[in-house]
């Protein structure tokens, strides 16, 4: 079965009630744009060889004016503008849905007490698993749709514009399968796998694995359609398994303490206190700290799998926070009194 038919069945399947509330790639409509452009190109190429005088091609002025398909400004404007909007909407829908899902599993503050009280009357874990499955399939199907349509664009136009656009999505952090929220979903599935409900979550977490070997800690996600993703869980600064991890908007993972040190801010101030000019220690991209994602599920997974390591790092980070806080307030006091 061709992907277009598979994608069509997916949109009309059992999850239709869910997909009506979220954005998705208009695969069928974008494919029609490419078909129209292909016919236009075929007519143009066929017409260019009708009249030849002394080896020179004479083109019909109508085709010359409206059917210049390499590049094709009309197709480009319709195609890439629409696809960028769709990719942005999908990434936004996915992140907001996953964030809401994770808040239900790892609540904080007052929400924790409310949900604990609610669990006395209703267990929402199975509902969380089902929504997690839908979100994984949602992001996977749309990522494949974008990849397929860009590949088809390059084939129709004999160009690399589709490949370049894919690079642009990656540069603007809209590459769907590189979202840190996908790592959080993988960690969520593995946390469910080790829960008391065990067997109920095998389907959800059976294709995911996490090797926390100190040399090469890796999380592996096997997504639908045989897509395999691997995420390195080693902090590039301290060269240990990430502790209290944050994902910068460029996608790189760091321990909170290491990221704060790289941005020249104190741990208790947090990453949002960093300067807008602070750069990622790996890719050197600026402005990536403002929208950093706190990886709560990943931290919980490491805490469960590596209890001694997590406890040791927690004690060390707490001591460093107390030390930095003391130095900070001492310097503030000296500044106020004029020393």
Keywords, separated by commas or semicolons:
339 residues; 13 helices; mainly alpha; globular
Structure description:
It is a single chain. With 339 residues, the protein is mainly alpha-helical. The chain has a domain at 1-40 and 71-176. It is 57% helix and 9% strand. It is built from 13 helices and eight strands. The protein has helices at residues 3-11, 16-19, 27-47, 61-66, 73-105, 110-119, 125-157, 161-171, 180-193, 202-205, 256-262, 296-305, 307-337; strands at residues 51-53, 56-58, 208-211, 218-223, 227-232, 245-247, 253-255, 293-294. A three-stranded antiparallel sheet has the order 3-4-5, covered by helices on one side. Strands 7-6-8 form a three-stranded antiparallel sheet. Helix 3 runs antiparallel to helix 5 and helix 5 (73-105) packs parallel to helix 9 (180-193). The radius of gyration is 26 Å and the shape is globular. The model is unreliable at 47-69 and 196-206 (pLDDT under 50).
Brief account:
Residues 47-69 and 196-206 have low confidence and may be disordered. The protein has 339 residues and is mainly alpha-helical. It has 13 helices and 8 strands.
**Rough outline:** globular
Strand content: 5-15%
Spatial gap, N to C terminus? 77 Å
Q: Percent range for helical residues?
A: 55-70%
**Structural class, from secondary structure content?**
mainly alpha
